C-alpha cells in the first residue's frame, strides 16, 4: 500500500533542521527502497514548508513506524504529520487506468 506523509515544518526550527539535515538524508537513503517519491514543498519565498513522501509499505503501521524513526520528526522539526492512504492516478499504473476511474463515477 502507498501512504502520503505530509510533514508540516514547525516555526523557528530552521537551525535544528539544518543541523539534522545530514542525519535526515542518511535516513532517507537507508529507506529509499520504500519511498515511491518525495521531497519538500517550497513556499513563495523559496523556503521549505513541508516534507511530502509517498511511502510504499505493507500497512498504516509501517508508515507510522517510518515517520516515528525519522530524525526530523524525533527532534520536533515537524509541527504536524498527516498520514493518509494514497492512490495513484497519474502517471497511469497501466494504460487506460484514468479512463476507468472517470467511467467508474
From TrEMBL:
It comes from the Bacteria. Coiled coil: none annotated. It holds the Pfam family YCII. Residues 1-87 form the YCII-related domain. PANTHER family: PROTEIN YCII. Belongs to the YciI family. This is YCII-related domain-containing protein. It comes from Merismopedia glauca CCAP 1448/3.
Amino acid at each position: 500500500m502507498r501512504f502520503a506523509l505530509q510533514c508540516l515544518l514547525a516555526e523557528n526550527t530552521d537551525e535544528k533542521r539544518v543541523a539534522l539535515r545530514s542525519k535526515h538524508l542518511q535516513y532517507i537513503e537507508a529507506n529509499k527502497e520504500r519511498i515511491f517519491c518525495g521531497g519538500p514543498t517550497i513556499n513563495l519565498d523559496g523556503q521549505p514548508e513541508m516534507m511530502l513522501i509517498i511511502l510504499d509499505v505493507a500497512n498504516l503501521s509501517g508508515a507510522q513506524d517510518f515517520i516515528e524513526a525519522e530524525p526530523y520528526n524525533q527532534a520536533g522539526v515537524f509541527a504536524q504529520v498527516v498520514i493518509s492512504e494514497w492512490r495513484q492516478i497519474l502517471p497511469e499504473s497501466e494504460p487506460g487506468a484514468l479512463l476507468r476511474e472517470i467511467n467508474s463515477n
